[in-house]
Specification:
With 139 residues, the protein is α+β, with helices and mostly antiparallel strands. 27% of the residues lie in helices and 21% in strands. The longest helix has 13 residues. The radius of gyration is 17 Å and the shape is globular.
Length: 139
């Protein structure tokens, strides 16, 4: 269990948030080991070993605040499954339906040949592609 979360203070301050102990603990769990996709429930389970009271509601609230501040990207797979992605750069996802797991696809690995004509007065803010896969019993 990590004891020193202070290295995340600058990151949280730079995002315009107050570096509370709880936020620093969550940032440590999220950002210590490279990019990851994690649900609020998974993160809550992970930080339950920390000597810090962190309810699931607190985890949820902070994940949404981190997302709003640009530290995370919310990836909604379907109405019952939302992941938080530490990779905030533009990219797509491979979704393993059997395992409930996401993997990044670099945006230049998918080429879009055509997009619909847009109504007047709107611009594309992003194009997010999910390639959903399931295990193939013959493979
Ligand atoms: Zn991702």
């Amino acid at each position: 269990m990590p004891d020193d979360f202070s290295s995340y203070e600058a990151l949280i301050r730079a995002a315009g948030l107050r570096p509370t102990k709880q936020r620093m603990a969550l940032a440590s769990a999220l950002f210590a080991d490279g990019n990851r996709h994690i649900t609020a429930e998974e993160l809550h389970k992970e930080v339950s070993s920390y000597r810090l009271p962190l309810s699931l509601a607190t985890v949820y609230n902070n994940l949404h605040q981190f997302t709003k501040a640009g530290l995370l990207r919310e990836v909604i797979v379907d109405s019952s499954k939302t992941y938080f992605d530490t990779n905030t750069s533009p990219h797509h996802h491979l979704y393993y339906e059997n395992e409930g797991r996401l993997e990044d696809i670099q945006s230049d690995n998918i080429r879009l040949r055509q997009l619909p004509e847009l109504p007047e007065g709107v611009d594309i803010s992003s194009v997010d592609i999910f390639v959903r896969v399931r295990s193939n019993p013959t493979g």
